[in-house]
Amino acid sequence: MIQVNYIHWIAFAVFLVLMLLFDLGFYGRKSHVVTLKEALISSSIWISLAVIFNIIIFIFAGHAKGLEFLTGYLLEYYLSVDNIFVFVLIFTYFSVPSNYQHKVLFWGIFGAIIMRGILIAIGASLVLKFHWILYIFGLFLIYSGFKMIFQKVDKIQPEKNILVR
């Protein structure tokens, strides 16, 4: 079994960035409507890369780690299906033309990954320095949950939102 160190994480991050750049630079270069055939080919490529990565984990990190990755990958893959419905709703609501949807989706997901990474890094360093901050985070989550449950929703008018404009 191989010992994972920072070089492996750096190599993984570089590979991930290269694949994202490839996706935007090659596949998303021209704004166009994605056909079913094109979507199937693209999905097959990405799933194949995940399977190859999983095989590498099985070989170098062992059966348990390989099974953990496979389980996590399948779980995330199945959970991502509900995101498709959210994307369709957002694209329909904002009338995003079909030929721009891939680019909008790519940059939206890319931005979410960057923001999530920043927030995880900040949160982890805060928790390491101030363990009691977990209680504040928990209270914030409970407050947000109650606010969502009891909030009365009026007609949403995104055209009045300065960020949307």
Would you summarize the structure shown here?
The chain has 165 residues and is an all-alpha fold. The protein is built from 6 helices and no strands.
Report on this structure.
By secondary structure, this protein is mainly alpha-helical. The protein is built from six helices and no strands. It has helices at residues 6-27, 36-61, 63-79, 81-93, 101-129, 133-150. The protein starts with 5 loop residues before the first helix and ends in a 15-residue tail after the last helix.
First-residue to last-residue Cα separation: 53 Å
How can the largest sheet be summarized? none
Structure classification = mainly alpha
- Radius of gyration, whole Å: 20 Å
**Strand count:** 0
Sheet-strand content, in percent, reads under 5%
The helix/strand series, from N terminus to C terminus, equals HHHHHH
Low-confidence stretches: none
The tally of helices reads 6
The best one-word shape is globular
Summarize the amount of helix as a percent range.
over 70%
Mean pLDDT: 85
Descriptive terms for the model:
single chain, 165 residues, mainly alpha
